[in-house]
Amino acid sequence: MRGESVDLPVEIPGSAPLSTRLHSLLQHPPGAPDEAQTARGWVDLAYEAAYGERYAAAAEAAERGLSAPGSQNPENRLMLLRILSGVHEMRGESGLSAPFLRERIELLRSLGRTRQADVEAQLGPMLLREPDRVEAEILRRMAEELDDGTGPSVERADVLSSLAVRSLHDEGPEAALPLVTEACEILQALDRDQALAGARMFLAHAQLLCEDSEAALQTAQKVLAAPANRAVRGAMAMLRATVHYQAERMAEAAADAITAVELYAACGVRKGAASAAALLAGITSGTDQDETAVLAWRVAVQQAELGEFAESRMLSLALGQQLLEMDHHAEAEKVLDALSLRLTGADSDHSTRGRALMGLGHAVTQQKRPLEAMAHWNEAAKQFIAAQEVDEAARAHLAAGALAASLDRVEAARTHYEQGLKLADQGEETDPLMLLQALHSLGHLLCRHEEEAGLQYLDRAMQIVAEHGTDWQRADITDTKARSLTALGRGNEAVAAALEAADGFAASGDEEAAADAEIFAATVLLQMNQAQEAEALFRMAADEREISDPLLVTSLEGRVEALREMGRDDDAALVGAELERLRAQLANSEDHQRPE
Fold it and tell me: InterPro entries annotated for this entry (predicted)?
């Protein structure tokens, strides 16, 4: 801790690795509240508590400061009385605020600061909270009266600062900027370090909102180079982290973000600590530091839970998603299952619970428990419907349908696909790409099980592709139609559709998919006893396309069978030898890749 609060030391291990610092935060959550030795120390603790929205703690700290060593120093006493009156006013307790406000005004008069006392007596609570629009006009007139050529005054800086808060709310940062800039200039001229730190913090945020990032950085640096409490310093470290992140200076962003987390956590600004940790998680995740990102998300959750903020739900969800991305499926399951259970109830956050259940389904799928996944996704759909998020509910049903189809649970798949289609088909509110997915999935499922009605869904999907989709999607649906026609026993139409799909994939630059469609067409031809045409297609797919070795194996296998059907055993033997060499090569490659 720097500056005047010498009785509140805070060790910030700035040179330690990020992971070490995050582990330290997780392993050493705050214990008993900080204690100060002097009135000036209690000023900082009271301000920090107020900044962290712990108003009862702020009032208690300020009251203890009034009887601590140094409390008879007029400046310390004035600050403590201001905090006490302000905290009660912000809580809507004007009756409790008034005695402290009167005592402060009397102290100002006894010090000969009559004009400041008169201004505070006249404006009262307006200087302690965000003024309303009527009060803003009163403040504006007062600011004009105080600009009387007698030099800078604390009272004018106070009025300008309060007016800037209202101007920011009503007119935006551009209107607030000149007001808070002048307030800072006045306080600097009068050597009011404590008030100047707070005003500069406001100025830095206004500059950032005005998209003047460099000016905001410079102002933040001035705050950090001068006496200031931990909450203000944490806010400036957070601002710097945000600016660096937006400018893609990730190392600097991470360094400032962890500093913000530590400062905020040390002084109990839980919401700030959670936000800074979440920013750090995003930074480290984006720079492939996944393990560090997980730690940062855990700290964010910890701080939000300590502050009992509802944001802890979304942060837990983000932690679970990070673990899923890292393939830590068992850990992700624990986090997401706990979140889902926590949100169970009549007044639960249906949207967040739905997302937790979707992630939970993915986690258990990867652990070979697909039936649980289907149940989770079915429940997720219900949660999304309760939250009136129809698109998300449709996606949940489509995911469950795809999983059921992969398990050959045809009726379950059909039910989920039909529900997904019904939800996706919302008229003017329809997301065309999701409707396309629903039609494609249901059409393919029905045709695969010899229900010709599936072709109608594929035809409608093709109509949507024509208006909203891509050439690749058109080729993909055409490919599905080819395979569906085969299941329906319409071989010639299937071959024509497969070759059309191959041309579409090739035009879209997907050689692998093009070759796969050609190999499928060749397979159908072979089944139709058209071995010569089939062999030509198998050969073309292998010779004229850039394809993977596994697909090349399929092509060669087809060629061998076609050549034998044609009675060309010598040629079949040659191709068969090539096939065995490729199989051996692939097997050898797999052996080398297999962990010991």
Answer: TPR-like_helical_dom_sf
368: which 2 tokens?
């070979």
Extract the tokens encoding 292.
Answer: 């560090």
One DSSP character per residue, 474-516 reads HHHHHHHHHHHHHHTT-HHHHHHHHHHHHHHHHHTT-HHHHHH
pLDDT of residue 4: 40
Quote the CA–CA distance of 404 and 414 in Å, as a whole number.
Answer: 9
Q: What is the token pair recorded at 586?
A: 């692939």
Amino acid type, 440: H
What HEC string does 53-97 produce?
A: CCHHHHHHHHHHHCCCCCCCCHHHHHHHHHHHHHHHHHCCCHHHH
**Cα separation, 539 vs 360, whole angstroms:** 45
Please tell me the distance from the alpha carbon of residue 515 to that of residue 548, in angstroms, as a whole number.
10
Q: How far apart are CA 351 and CA 337, in angstroms?
A: 15
Q: Which amino acid would we find at residue 248? A: E
Chunked into runs of 10 residues, the chain (596 residues) has average pLDDT values of 39 68 89 86 95 93 96 95 94 91 96 95 89 92 89 93 94 95 95 92 96 96 93 96 95 96 94 96 92 95 90 93 94 95 82 96 95 95 93 95 94 95 80 90 90 92 90 94 91 95 94 94 94 93 87 92 92 91 83 54
Crossing angle, helix 549-565 and helix 511-527, to 10 degrees? Answer: 20
Q: Identify which of 386, 404, 399, 321 has the alpha carbon closest to the alpha carbon of residue 355.
A: 321
Which pLDDT value is given to residue 64?
96
Could you give the count of Cα atoms lying within 13 Å of 112 in the half-sphere of its Cβ?
0
Give the pLDDT of residue 155. Answer: 94
What's residue 273's pLDDT?
A: 95
- Burial class of residue 523 in the structure, from the number of CB atoms within 10 Å of its CB (0-12 exposed, 13-18 middle, 19+ buried): buried
d(CA 206, CA 176): 7
List of long-range contacts for 477-480, beta carbons under 8 Å, 24+ apart:
477/440, 478/504, 479/505, 479/513, 479/517, 479/520, 480/440, 480/443, 480/444, 480/447
Q: Report CA-CA distances (Å) from 394 to 318, 373, 377, 434, 463.
A: 22, 16, 10, 8, 20
What is the Cα–Cα distance from 588 to 547, expressed in whole angstroms?
19
Backbone angles phi, psi at 595, to 5 degrees: -65, 145
Radius of gyration of the chain, Cα coordinates, nearest whole angstrom:
34
Q: Which two tokens stand for residue 13?
A: 């291990």
Q: Residue 237 is which amino acid?
A: A
**Residue 474: both structure tokens together:** 């058109």
Q: Return the structure tokens found at 56.
A: 């009862």
Using DSSP, state whether 237 is helix, strand or coil: helix
What are the boundaries of each domain within the chain?
243-301
Both tokens of 76, joined, read: 């310390």
| Residues found in the chain | 596
